[in-house]
Amino acid sequence: MPSSAGRAPGICQVCETDRHAAVIMDFGDYVVSRCRRCGFVYLGGDRDRAGEHGRYRKDQFTDGYLRLFDPEVIAGEQVESLRGILDRAGAPLPGLGDGAPALDIGCARGWFLRGLREAGWPGPLTGVDISREMTDWGREAFGLDLRATPVEDASLPSGGFGLVTMWDVLEHVPDPRAVAARILDLLRPGGWAVIEVPAERTLFRVLSRLAYRATGGRLRRPARRIYHPTHLSYFTAGSLRRLLAGLGAEGITLRTKEAHVTRFGLGRYRWPARAAIRTVSLLDRALGMEAKLLCAFRRPPA
Question: Looking at the whole model, is its pTM more than 0.85?
Answer without folding.
Answer: yes
